[in-house]
Amino acid sequence: MRPGPASKARALRAEQIILFRVGGQLFAISSASVQEVRSVDSLTGTTQEIPQSAVRKVRHTIRRGDTTHYVVNGTIHFGVQAAAASLIFFLRHTPTALLVDGIEKMTTMTYLQALPQAFCHEEREWYRGLTALDQTVVPVVRPEGFLSVEELTLLDRTLQAELRKEQEEPESAQDSE
């Protein structure tokens, strides 16, 4: 009897994830995608409002070093029930900070399922896929999916216009004296 073809055992690739809640809904994100987690209370006085934001889910920025982070309101982004955010995730490789209700736990994900076709609009950009943890299906977010290139461009233009306006105001005040 000839031996059958060698079976290819599928190697499990474990990934550390953070389970977090926004508007009571559970989501996951790779822990490697999160640079820092802070309490929103610790940011008092460090945020700058964007009064005329063209992107409804972003109303504030936070300057950290050479980077301006756009603060995304998670409840508006995901279209879930509004809740008071208690934490902010500063994301790596993107100028995005995300307001979340809280962290459920850190755990390991060993399987990422492709998104079903039911995810058919911008949600396809929001998520990497789905994972099952403790018999619960959890969407795994893409850090780059919170703000599209178009939204980032609009926000950058809005911020630059606000800076120009602020610089012109002191000059106008001096001219009138």
What is the CA-CA span between the terminal residues? 101 Å
Q: Which overall shape is indicated by the principal axes computed on the Cα atoms?
A: globular
What is the total number of structural domains?
1
Q: Give the ordered list of helices and strands.
A: EEEEEEHEEEHEEH
Model description:
The structure is a single chain. By secondary structure, the protein is α+β, with helices and mostly antiparallel strands. The chain has a single domain (15-171), classed as OB fold (Dihydrolipoamide Acetyltransferase, E2P), CATH 2.40.50.180. Helices cover 20% and strands 38% of the residues. The protein is built from 3 helices and 11 strands, in the order E-E-E-E-E-E-H-E-E-E-H-E-E-H. It has helices at residues 74-78, 123-126, 149-175, and strands at 15-22, 25-30, 34-39, 47-49, 58-64, 67-73, 87-91, 96-100, 102-109, 127-133, 136-141. The strands form 3 sheets. It has a 6-stranded mixed sheet with strand order 3-7-8-6-5-4. Strands 2-1-9 form a 3-stranded antiparallel sheet. The protein has a two-stranded antiparallel ribbon with strand order 10-11. 19% of the residues are buried.
Keywords:
single chain, 177 residues, alpha+beta, OB fold (Dihydrolipoamide Acetyltransferase, E2P), globular
Describe the secondary-structure layout.
Blueprint: E1 15-22, E2 25-30, E3 34-39, E4 47-49, E5 58-64, E6 67-73, H1 74-78, E7 87-91, E8 96-100, E9 102-109, H2 123-126, E10 127-133, E11 136-141, H3 149-175
Parallel strand pairs: 6-8
Antiparallel strand pairs: 1-2, 1-9, 3-7, 4-5, 5-6, 7-8, 10-11
